[in-house]
Design a protein that fits this description.
This protein is an alpha/beta fold. It has one domain: P-loop containing nucleotide triphosphate hydrolases (Rossmann fold). It is built from ten helices and five strands, in the order αβαβααβααβαααβα. A five-stranded parallel beta sheet has the order 2-3-1-4-5, with helices on both faces. Helix 1 runs parallel beside helix 10 and helix 2 packs across helix 10. The longest helix is centred in the first third of the chain and has 25 residues.
């Protein structure tokens, strides 16, 4: 199987992209996700884990907000993974994520995820390649367990952002007072390691047992439409039904 080359995949929307049309379609699809989520919660047989991974400023929070904006707070949760706490460091790397896996009838969104431990730690050489391989194997086994043992569907999105667009977004955080709160000097330092992160992502995607979806995210509107469509199609395929009273 050919290895993925992210540089060969466009980060842009397709030709003929109509911003107004795609916004309308995305809104309607998000409403349908909300309706299906209610059925999922009532039926209590399926669960959905959505993983958003990508470079800084690729829109993980925005995609979460727009895709699930019509879902009831009951039965949906989002977790943003940051630097592990002392307690989390004292356990195996999957400890903090396993306890947050979605229970049947619910949706869980990971904004960053267990993949951080084979990305940032690898790029900064805090773990060696043998450690990386063992962690990849552990991730694959864990994801397979969720699917087999808890009827969990896993959607993993790589937020495919161009280096040029990231520069624009990071600069916005400095120039726009309403976005100053997002600014982090560390993001600029991590940007210097772009090529190493790209290599690490490609390897993680290649060695994953659950396929990744490459989401073009240079356009916020197209990003939201693309991700919402994938989530909706996945939930439709679950063939869920509202429970009824037997007579």
């Amino acid at each position: 199987m050919a290895k993925i080359k992210l540089a060969d995949i466009s980060t842009q929307p397709p030709k003929g992209f109509d911003k107004k049309k795609y916004k309308k379609e995305q809104r309607e699809m998000a409403k349908e996700i909300g309706e299906l989520h209610e059925i999922m919660f009532a039926e209590g047989k399926n669960s959905l884990l959505v993983v958003f991974q990508g470079m800084d400023s690729s829109g993980k929070d925005g995609a979460t907000r727009e895709t699930f904006k019509y879902c009831s707070p009951n039965g949906i949760n989002a977790t943003s993974f940051k630097k592990p706490t002392d307690e989390e460091f004292a356990h195996d790397f999957l400890w903090r994520v396993h306890k947050l896996a979605p229970q049947k009838g619910t949706i869980r969104v990971f904004i960053r995820s267990h993949y951080e431990d084979i990305l940032i730690q690898r790029v900064h050489q805090w773990i060696d390649e043998e450690h990386v391989t063992k962690r990849i194997n552990a991730i694959n086994a864990w994801e397979e367990l969720l699917q087999f043992d808890n009827n969990t569907t896993i959607l993993k999105f790589y937020m495919h952002l161009s280096e040029e667009r990231q520069l624009e977004k990071l600069q916005e955080r400095i120039d726009d007072p309403e976005k100053n709160w997002k600014h982090n000097d560390g993001d600029w330092e991590e940007r210097k390691l772009w090529a190493k992160y790209r290599d690490a992502y490609e390897d993680a995607i290649d060695r994953s047992s659950v396929p990744w979806i490459i989401a073009p995210v240079d356009s916020r509107t197209y990003r939201n439409w693309f991700i919402t469509k994938k989530v909706l199609e996945t939930m439709q395929d679950m063939k869920m039904k509202l429970p009824t009273i037997e007579k």
